[in-house]
From TrEMBL:
Pfam families: Peripla_BP_2. Residues 2-288 form the Fe/B12 periplasmic-binding domain. CDD domains: BtuF. SUPFAM superfamilies: Helical backbone' metal receptor. This is Vitamin B12-transporter protein BtuF. InterPro entries: ABC_transptr_periplasmic_BD, Vitamin_B12-ABC_binding.
Length: 309
């Protein structure tokens, strides 16, 4: 078996199933897992990494309008790797290589690999993705074990949060312009003991305005920018200084703004979504949910912002 994974969450699932040694190719955004040997990087982004968030938003909009690809595939390398399975997605054309492009390429290869489209919109969608990968890799037993472990952790958080007062949250996945996180994130907020004031579970992320964020008067703003580490998000946060809507919100004045790692957790629909849920539960109700110590030091995964910052 020779697996090429074109998105980080798929790579995470492969590794969680104990198949990291079967990886021969990964995307430019995938972390190379221990035990994976030396899989080749087969994709690249056409958007320069050093742009500001606003510049990235403009560049993405222009390229989509012109039907220009946001990502490229090294076709020659992919053919050379001779994969038997390619894991891709059709959920978001901004997030990874287009699924149709991958399918067309696979169909043109001598030994046509199986292309698996992983496009979850919810935790149930994540469970389905795990089943898909387990089925195509003849790992159904390991897949079922993984599902039981993940679902048990979700149940524990949901049960503890059920009777807690719901905290009113705005969850953002981009800051300039602001985008409200959708897909699975409103579900995570609910399970963690909150109410997502602007996001809709199972629906795509949506552009909003700072006026709209101010109008709903959240108790807390959670920021997990798509593809960004905490450090990269902090750069954007600083640029909100002087924004009248931002500075007028009680939650901002009161230090109830949390910056989380979107790249590693909340924007990555693999097993780390359950880590994300546990992080969020601790953030909303620390009196009930301990920080998940298995993830490492809290200050590396969660930053609280104050006006002094």
């Amino acid at each position: 078996m020779r697996i090429v994974s074109l998105l980080p969450s798929a790579t995470d699932i492969v590794c969680a199933l104990g198949l990291e040694d079967k990886l021969v190719g990964v995307s430019h955004e995938c972390a190379i897992p221990a035990g994976a040997g030396a899989p080749k990087v087969v994709t690249a982004s056409t958007i320069p990494a050093n742009l500001s968030s606003k510049q990235i938003d403009v560049a993405v909009g222009q390229q989509l309008q012109q039907s220009t690809a946001l990502y490229t595939i090294n076709e020659a390398l992919l053919r050379k790797l001779k994969p038997t399975v390619i894991l891709t997605q059709s959920l978001c054309q901004v997030c990874a290589v287009d699924q149709e492009q991958v399918q067309d390429l696979a169909d043109s290869m001598e030994d046509s690999p199986v292309v698996v489209d992983l496009s979850p919109m919810s935790l149930n969608g994540l469970y389905h993705s795990i089943r898909q990968v387990a089925a195509v890799t003849a790992s159904r037993g390991e897949g079922q074990k993984l599902l039981v472990q993940l679902q048990r952790r979700v149940h524990t958080i949901a049960e503890r949060s059920e009777t807690l007062r719901r905290r009113r949250v705005v969850f953002l996945e981009w800051l300039d312009p602001p985008f409200v996180a959708g897909h699975w994130n409103p579900e995570l907020v609910r399970l963690a003991g909150g109410i997502d004031l602007l996001g809709t579970a199972g629906q795509p992320s949506t552009k909003t305005t700072w006026q709209q964020v101010q109008d709903v008067n959240p108790e807390m703003i959670v920021v997990a920018c798509c593809g960004y580490s905490i450090q990269r998000s902090m750069t954007d946060i600083q640029q909100l200084s002087g924004n009248p809507h931002w500075e007028a919100m009680p939650c901002v004045k009161g230090g109830q703004v949390a910056i989380l790692d979107g790249s590693q957790y909340f924007n990555r629909p693999g097993p780390s979504l359950i880590d994300s849920l546990e992080l969020l539960a601790h953030l909303l109700h620390p009196e009930m949910h301990r920080f998940p110590a298995s993830l490492g030091p809290a200050n590396s995964l969660l930053t609280r912002l104050s006006m002094a910052s």
